[in-house]
Amino acid sequence: ATGRADDRLIITKAVIGDGQLTKSIDSLTSLVNPKLEIGLSNVKEVTNGQMQLQFNFDNKKVETGFYWREVGVYGKNGDSGQEKLIGYSNASGLTD
Predict the structure, then answer these.
(1) Residue 6 confidence (pLDDT)
(2) Does 1 have pLDDT greater than 50?
(3) CA dist., res. 89 & res. 31, Å (int)
(4) What whole-number distance in Å separates Cα of residue 80 and Cα of residue 47?
(5) What pTM value is reported for the model?
């Protein structure tokens, strides 16, 4: 980053899904099996580049139930940046 205002990280959304992780997280560009896009409701800058993100969602758009196994956070650099997967977690077989 060059420190310009256009280089700031903008969190755009989160996505949840039920995908089984079968390869390295480093190679992912999207969720394995996305099911529901979640809008960002609040961003709080904590300290030293850390952020606290809050996403709210409901199941109104879900037609078929699924095990929430994976979550991805998407963001971009500045207003003109390309949206990319910047964070990912998968619960593997630990879902109920």
Answers:
(1) 66
(2) no
(3) 9
(4) 25
(5) 0.82
